[in-house]
Amino acid sequence: MAVDVAGSSIKKWLTAIGNNEFWYEDINVAAGEWKELAAANGDIDTSKQLWAFELYGKVFVVNGANRKVADFINVKITTTDVGEHPPDFQTVLTGETSGAKMVVDYITALSGAVTIYGRRITTATFEAETVTGTDDDSNAISFTGTAEVAGPHWYDWTSYGDDATFGSVPDQLTLGCAWNGRAVVAGNENDPNQWYMSRQGNPWDFNYIANDQQAPISGEDAELGKVGDVVVALMPYNKDYFVLGCANSLWYLVGNPAAHGSLILLDDTIGMLDSQAWCKDGEGNLYMLTTTGLIKIPSGFGRPQNLLEVAYPNFATDLGFDGSLHRIILGYDRNRSGIKVVKTVLADGSNSNWWYDLRIGGLFPETYPNQCGVYCLFDYAATDAEYSGLLHGCKDGYVRVEDSAAKDDDIGMSDQAINSYVTFGPLTLGEENLEGAITSIVGVTTGGKSGGSVTDSNALTYSAWTALSADSIVEKLAANTTPNAAGTISAPGRNRGARKRKPIRGLYAGIRIGNDTAAQTWGLEKLIVESRVKGRVK
Questions:
Q1: How many other C-beta atoms can be found within 10 angstroms of the C-beta atom of residue 465?
Q2: 500 versus 17: which is more confidently predicted?
Q3: Using an 8 Å Cβ cutoff, are 148 and 131 in contact?
Q4: Which residues of 353-386 are buried (b: 16+ CB within 10 A; e: fewer)?
Q5: Distance (Å, rounded) from C-alpha 492 to C-alpha 458?
Q6: Which of 236, 253, 299, 492 could join 179 via S-S bond, C-beta 3.0 to 4.6 A?
Q7: 363 near 356, Cβ under 8 Å?
């Protein structure tokens, strides 16, 4: 996402990267209209790990040896000779003929033929003309520039002027984010324990020998030091804390790392599973999927809590994650108050997913069509609330959202029916060695008989099983074969003759209710199950 401020209004562009291409929302046409940034085509490799983040109206992309910038906020001018005194960062340049002014943001070199990017602060635009200014040392700047070119622009991310005076952007980066006005990067395959931060307010300065509170800094050049583990994820928590998720441990930075900040071990028994396996909710809580389960760091930076320690202690093990085959992603859905946990096979988009409902603390499995296999999630707060929500970047190149009004899954040029169901059980029917029997099942579906504002449910199917052990019921519910009883629950509401009378006997029971018909939806208001104790188990 890129952000710009024009007058008193704020503009946001959604951006998306896939198939070695960079696309952006063309807000000059209409919201939701997309356009390719042609200069980026083939300049990145999406078969390798890639991170993109917004900072100062630009999207910074780190993709191994590819370090790029998609610039939505600046115009650019070029010159064949910048002269003896190139403009400094934030120098104001003026076109002598046009009267146009720009605040310099970035320059490709400090001598000879250069391209200058800057924020124009006048309505007048630069022409082919003499451009002048004064640098930080009161030196006069003067060169002949070309007419300006509007953005978006695509160029290499280097230090200012690509000059050693401002250090150099580290090589082989695969992780990046913005924190407190700094560009934070890591994932150097040649130095996997290292982390780096640009100067605060200046993403072009990586000169670590500076000695001030806004100075660039890295683990190698700071008192804080490197982490003693491979950095897997960068997680900006708030203005005071920054979390480094590592392969076998969690660390955090507290305070300004360039001014007596500290690097502290948070936990050496927890390891991050993947670079996208984290998210934050609307209250400032941080969630991570780790080697021990779904972890929450409460707002205010409390101690880590394992949300599945009791309900599903083997969740991380059962996940069967392999970083060479899968992608793990967490996303916060503010509209539905929950956390989406996604595991997608990179090769074909097949997936296993879970919904963790923050309201009740429950974990629910989900599966999407392979075309909709999720490769990234983004909680988008649009200026127009209609476009806000959790965005899903999918295997087939589409960006999707969950639509409560839709009754089928969109798989591109067609739709696919949703198989949705809920299970109840194991339910105890008897006592000790006394079997019980289900004597009737009544389902009350949502909706009314006619009219009204409540959405009417379609009919449901049900299946019921009995067994002599609770584990047998669990297995039968999972297999969903050969039920002891099955039928249809009519809808909407409660209907006469809805009571299903087909006694089935056992110590335990399980019931599955759902609908897998295209263009249909369902809701269950109440399930009434009647049973009675029968004879001894024989």
A1: 26
A2: 17
A3: no
A4: bbebebeeeebeeeebbbbbbbbbbbbbeeeeee
A5: 7
A6: 236
A7: yes
Can you read off the two tokens belonging to residue 294? 């779904």
| Percent share of the chain, pLDDT over 90 | 78
Amino acid making up residue 380: Y
The Cα 272–Cα 98 span in angstroms is 55
pLDDT at residue 377 above 80? yes
CA–CA distances in Å: residue 336 to residues 206, 389, 419: 41, 9, 20
Distance between CA atoms of residues 233 and 274, nearest Å: 7
Q: What is the 3-state secondary structure (H, E, C) of 236-280?
A: ECCCCEEEEEECCCEEEEECCCCCCCEEEEEECCCCECCCECEEE
Question: Is 275 in contact with 233 (CB distance < 8 Å)?
Answer: yes
Widest CA span in the chain = 102
Residue among 160, 146, 125 at smallest CA distance from 80 = 146
Residue whose entry in the numeric block shows the structure tokens 């793990």: 328
Task: Decide: helix, strand or coil at residue 234.
Answer: strand
Tokens of 27: 């807000």
Amino acid in the structure at residue 185: V
Q: Is 439 left (phi over 0), alpha (psi -120 to 50) or beta?
A: alpha
- Quick check: 484 and 500 in contact, CB under 8 A? no
Query: Is the pLDDT higher at 153 or at 498?
Result: 153
Q: Which two tokens stand for residue 61?
A: 């992309």
Distance (Å, whole) CA 32 – CA 44 = 24
What does residue 404 show for φ and ψ, rounded to 5 degrees? -65, -20
Global confidence as pTM: 0.91
Average pLDDT over residues 323-352: 96
Is 363 within 8 Å of 311 (Cβ atoms)?
Answer: yes
Name which of 205, 192, 200, 312 is nearest 256 in CA terms. Answer: 200
DSSP state letters, 466-524: EESSHHHHHHHHHHT-S-SEEEEE-SSS--TT--B---EEESEEEEEEEE--TT----E
Rounded mean pLDDT, 490-519: 89
pLDDT tens digits along 104-149:
999 999 999 999 999 999 999 999 999 999 999 999 999 999 999 9
- Phi and psi at residue 165, to the nearest 5°: -55, -30
Helices (H) and strands (E) in the chain, counts: 2, 43
- Cα–Cα distance between 496 and 13 in angstroms, integer? 54
Q: Which two tokens stand for residue 100?
A: 């146009």
Q: 470 phi and psi, to 5 degrees?
A: -65, -40
CB-count burial class (<10 Å; 0-12, 13-18, 19+) for 314: exposed
